[in-house]
Amino acid sequence: MARGRAGAGRRDGGAGRRGARPAAARDARTRHPGAPSEPAPRVARAFRLGIIPGAMPGKWVERWRARMPHMPLELVPIAVSEQRTALDEGRVDAALVRLPLAGDADTVHAIRLYDETPVVVASRDSSLMAAEELVAADLEGEILLTPGDDVLGSLALPTATPRFEAPATTEEAIAIAAAGVGVVVVPLSLARLHHRRDVDHRPLLGGPQSTVALAWLRDRDADDIQTFVGITRGRTARSSR
């Protein structure tokens, strides 16, 4: 009988060891029953840069990442029609915009970065593409397609008005031009953005240029924005403002 009781005791003890939690875990729960979990690692706030269609900030983004590795740069696509509201609503810290910028000029900073050449986009088979460059007179009688997201405004050109509804976007307008119906006048960057194999483009001499600028709200004028301003102006990390 004694052997049976001893054996039972050993079996019970073995089962208890197999089902037991590790001692370290038991001790930790006993010593700190309400201990908080480890805090999550802090994520650095990103610098949010609004980008209009056609803008190419690649070289500035690379310089930012080299100079400001502790602060990520987030590119936020915005339409030209919403470039001011994106700033006013705080969706971006700064933005590459097309001038003029709507709204109260006294509440925003805007520095000119570059001017874009206007180009005529037409079907690759169009006789217009036989020239290296065009002037307004070359477009006489051509149907001018003006999309709903046009950024150049009214053009003083001897063109004809289409008898159908205007396309909603530049991409749609260029698709129509590709079919041999009309031409589109846009800044060079938009012609490149919406490039197709069946269209080509030529510079329009004397046409209206489009100015791209960096804009931000005056009350948001902080060190991170001034750093990006300096990068766009070619200043190094040691340069003064």
Written overview of the protein:
- The strands form 2 sheets. The chain has a 5-stranded mixed sheet with strand order 2-1-3-8-4. A 3-stranded antiparallel sheet has the order 6-5-7.
- It contains 7 helices and 8 strands, in the order ααβαβαβββαβαββα.
- Mean pLDDT is 86; it is low at 1-20.
- The chain has helices at residues 2-19, 23-31, 58-67, 83-88, 170-178, 188-193, 223-232; strands spanning 47-51, 73-77, 94-98, 108-116, 118-123, 184-187, 199-203, 210-217.
- 28% of the residues lie in helices and 20% in strands.
- The chain has 241 residues and is α/β, with parallel strands linked by helices.
Main sheet?
A: 5 strands, mixed
Query: Could you list the spans in which at least 5 consecutive residues all have pLDDT below 50?
Result: 1-20
Q: Please count the beta strands (DSSP E, at least 2 residues each).
A: 8
- Summarize model confidence as the mean pLDDT: 86
Helix content: 25-40%
Beta-sheet strand percentage? 15-25%
Query: What gap, in angstroms, lies between the N and C termini?
Result: 94 Å
Secondary structure tally, helices: 7
Class computed from helices, strands and strand pairing: alpha/beta
The helix/strand order is: HHEHEHEEEHEHEEH
Strand order of the largest sheet: 2-1-3-8-4
- Shape annotation: elongated
Radius of gyration: 32 Å
